[in-house]
């Protein structure tokens, strides 16, 4: 079943895109894209055979034809037509491994990493991949950060790399609360650590005030 995170990812895909959903698991995103004719073509892949078999069953049930690949990232995929890649529901190190093995002609990535967003933003920037837009959605008690990434240059600064570019005020408020919680726990003696959390709180307050 398509959830808010996958729907938001789908909203960043365009009619002309030829999409590979890596890490597709159940293939709900690919099915949604195909059923609603939201892109030119879509493929689904996963590293895990059970996941891929589940995907195949779901595709069959939906009476659709979607080519699937059993593959760690791009390792078993030779399809030159793909220009848009979705990498969602895995950690930042997997995201970066998949990008490292991707063909050079990929124009667009839609990424939703489970962790280390600041590190991911910096790593993308350093390899000439720029975040055009960030969406943050809240689902089942959790925030999901979704990044639209292309090769078109975008300026970044310390704050945008650290906290992203979404306009979700509640997300920033939740980060502010996290920083405050950490600050409350830092022992008085750890002055430097205290200072860095105070700095983060100040930065976040500035972002929120501007919204
Ligand atoms: C939590 S599911 C994510 C499903 C969906 N993309 C989402 O965001 O809701 C993660 C999936 O990623 C797959 N996966 C993990 N590492 C992978 C890799 N290197 N290449 C392809 N798939 C991978 C797992 O087998 C699993 O099915």
Write out key terms for the chains shown.
211 residues; alpha/beta; Rossmann fold; elongated
What does this structure look like?
This protein has helices at 4-11, 28-35, 49-61, 92-100, 117-126, 158-163, 169-185, 191-210, and strands at residues 18-22, 41-46, 68-70, 84-90, 108-113, 130-139, 142-150. Helix 1 crosses helix 2 and helix 4 (92-100) runs parallel beside helix 5 (117-126). The two termini are 33 Å apart. The chain has 211 residues and is an alpha/beta fold. Bound molecules: S-adenosylmethionine. S-adenosylmethionine binds at residues 6, 22-25, 46-48, 51, 72-73, 88-90, 94, 98, 112.
Helix content: 40-55%
Strands of the widest sheet, in order across it, are 3-2-1-4-5-7-6
Q: Provide the number of structural domains.
A: 2
Poorly predicted runs are none
Shape: elongated
Q: What's the pLDDT, averaged over the residues?
A: 96
Rg computed from alpha carbons, rounded to a whole number of angstroms: 19 Å
Query: What's the tally of helices?
Result: 8
Short summary:
This protein has two domains: 4-154, Rossmann fold, CATH 3.40.50.150; 170-210. The protein has a seven-stranded mixed sheet, sandwiched between helices.
Question: How would the blueprint of this fold be written?
Answer:
Blueprint: H1 4-11, E1 18-22, H2 28-35, E2 41-46, H3 49-61, E3 68-70, E4 84-90, H4 92-100, E5 108-113, H5 117-126, E6 130-139, E7 142-150, H6 158-163, H7 169-185, H8 191-210
Parallel strand pairs: 1-2, 1-4, 2-3, 4-5
Antiparallel strand pairs: 5-7, 6-7
Bound molecules: S-adenosylmethionine.
């Amino acid at each position: 079943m398509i959830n808010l995170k996958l729907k938001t990812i789908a909203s960043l895909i365009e009619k002309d895109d030829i999409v590979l959903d890596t890490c597709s698991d159940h293939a709900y995103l690919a099915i949604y894209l195909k059923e609603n004719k939201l892109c030119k073509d879509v493929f689904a892949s996963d590293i895990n055979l059970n996941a891929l078999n589940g995907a195949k069953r779901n595709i069959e049930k939906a009476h659709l034809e979607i080519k699937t690949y059993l593959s760690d990232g791009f390792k078993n995929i030779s399809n030159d037509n793909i220009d848009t890649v979705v990498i969602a529901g895995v950690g930042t190190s997997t995201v970066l491994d998949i990008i490292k093995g991707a063909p050079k002609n990929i124009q667009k990535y839609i990424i939703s990493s489970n962790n280390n967003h600041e590190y991911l933003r910096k790593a993308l920037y350093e390899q000439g991949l720029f975040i055009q837009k960030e969406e943050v959605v809240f689902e089942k008690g959790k925030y999901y950060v979704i990044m639209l990434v292309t090769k078109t240059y975008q300026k970044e600064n310390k704050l945008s790399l650290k906290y992203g570019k979404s306009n979700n005020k509640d997300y920033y408020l939740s980060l502010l609360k996290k920083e405050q919680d950490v600050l409350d726990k830092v022992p008085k003696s750890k002055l430097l650590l205290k200072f860095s959390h105070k700095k983060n709180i100040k930065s976040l307050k500035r972002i929120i005030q501007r919204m």
